[in-house]
Amino acid sequence: MADNRTMAQMLQAPIEGYEDAIVVPTINANNFELKQTLINLVQSNQFTGKQDPHNHLRFFNKVTSTFRHPEVPNTSIKLLLFPFSLEGEARTWLDKEPPRSILTWDDLVSKFINQFFPPSKTTYLRNKITTFYQEPNETFNEAWERFKELLRQCPHHGFSELHQLDTFYNSLNTNDQDALDSAAGGNFLDKMPREGLAIIESKSKVRYSRSRPNDSRAITNAPSSTSSPSNNSFEIQQMAALLEDKMNIRMSRLEKAISEKQSTPATVKAVEEVCVTCGANHNFNNCPLTRNEFPVFHDNIHQFQQTAAVGNFV
């Protein structure tokens, strides 16, 4: 059949083939519409392709669960709203998907995760979980929070609760392992998994402000790195804390000494008179040498007093 279109018509862009990749099932409910407030809430935390896709799905599921319609499946609402939650690279990915290639919510989740969380990333995080160790200047609480963050970043890691607890326990320094054993009343690994998890969570609630372990085993396993400003800052904080402790000890000792000094009554020694003539324990006026028996000494002493008075005046 001959094509009777003009060349201008042939050069025009096609008007078909612009269907979306997501196919939303037909909704026959009466008076159904997506509220603008719900769309705005979804757009408040859009995924650009740089964030964690699992976190985005958690947020999206939480938002869409707040809106329900008795005649509309929740999965249909999710399929309608999901494009509004994407922007940038993520939006470009969805636009490049073949038209009508995503038929269900499970299809959308599977393609979304495989695109922004490829298998290579899964392997990388699984290796980090398996080879986890407590860093030299890391407290128990910090190590436990970092370990849980690795598990959260890879929710499909496949490790059982026993494997997780065993890996974390063996990654700790000797002091923290002993603390867990003491809290367990023996060997920590003799406890059931749920009991061990409760012990770890209880111990992690104790915040360490100054005492940080420095285990030689952790230093040996740790990768070599040059000193950084953060390390220097931490060393300065340690030195400041040590100096503060020493100052507090010395101040306590000083306050104790002052308190004891004040509580002890001071003894005042009586002033004793000493004769300037003979050195005996009496006033020089009562000295036998200056009385009438020895008038020569008396006159000399009298002259000495007058001379001293004139000198003091000058």
Automatic annotation (TrEMBL):
Domain Retrotransposon gag, residue spans: 81-173
Superkingdom of the organism of origin: Eukaryota
Keyword Nuclease: no
Cited InterPro entries: Retrotrans_gag_dom (IPR005162)
Keyword Nucleotidyltransferase: yes
Compositionally biased region (Low complexity): 220-232
GO molecular function: RNA-directed DNA polymerase activity
Assigned keywords, A-Z: Nucleotidyltransferase, RNA-directed DNA polymerase, Transferase
Protein name: Reverse transcriptase domain-containing protein
Organism from which the protein derives: Tanacetum coccineum
